[in-house]
Amino acid sequence: MKFTILIIFFVFPIAFADLRVGFYSSSCPRAEEIVRQVVQRNFNQDRTVTGALLRMHFHDCFVRGCDASILIDSTKGNSSEKDAGANGTVRGFEVIDEAKRILERLCPSTVSCADIITLATRDSVSMAGGPRYDVATGRRDGLVSRSSEVNLPGPGSSVSQALQVFTANGMSLDQMVTLLGAHTVGVAHCSFFRDRLGDPNMDPSLRAVLGRICRPTGRNPTVFLDQNTSFVFDNEFYKQIVLKRGVLFLDQQLALDPSSRGLVSSLAGDDAGFRRSFVDAIVKMGNIRVLVGNDGEIRRNCRVFNSPF
Prior knowledge:
Number of strands: 2
InterPro entries: Haem_peroxidase (IPR002016), Haem_peroxidase_sf (IPR010255), Peroxidase_pln (IPR000823), Peroxidases_AS (IPR019794), Secretory_peroxidase (IPR033905)
Shape: globular
CATH topology of the largest domain: Peroxidase, domain 1
Family: Belongs to the peroxidase family. Classical plant (class III) peroxidase subfamily.
Number of helices: 12
Cofactor: heme b; Ca(2+)
EC number: 1.11.1.7
Order of helices and strands: HHHHHHHEHEHHHH
Protein name: Peroxidase
CATH class of the largest domain: Mainly Alpha
Helix content: 40-55%
Distance between the termini: 38 Å
Structural class: mainly alpha
Strand content: under 5%
Largest sheet: 2 strands, antiparallel
């Protein structure tokens, strides 16, 4: 009997390992500080990094879970998530690479790329004036990344189409509307909305501005999704779409669809409420199908799987 109890004692922490705030407090005490310093340097140079990291985090978690599979480079034998059409304009990979290089020198094979994405996103939100919040860490990196598995709602999706993807990942309508509020610091290429420039559900003054920027010149410039406080993480996005100043079709539909317009109206009038709801939603998103314990691996280079011994 004593022998059996001893075995259970040693197996339990491995079998039931989970995420927790301060996971690296002993194994790599400066981990979160290092990530924040790297993000701050990049934010100081380019404040659109907040929107880029939010998008990366979302695109990673909604495929195989939050396992950094979006960071893997394609090889001759495998087209990775990074090369899927939906991820063609995802950026910010160099921020994750920089943090990983420093952490590998300080704490080799300790801090996962999945946790770096989560922490970097959290830090970039607060730098843009958004809420400060704790995130649990302890994620491990995935061992699979296939472009064929990428199925994400696009800018031309309806609310019901987008919701199908969110509910498949355990997220509610309220959480979807809240997470799309991250577009308050986002940008989009003209190719994502050029077909909307004749849409009667777009404010004429916005249509005129976008028409000038997106003239058919062979270029594909970007515009801010929140045309008012473009670099500030606030609830202005909702105020804009209520006024029919949504750039993307999906964004505008949030304010028009009967299922979501009440939520949009509520968030447009309550910045503090948006911040609280956003924290709850993004923390939940960051826990989608995470790998913990002995699952997956801790990559030494976020762009490639570890070589087998």
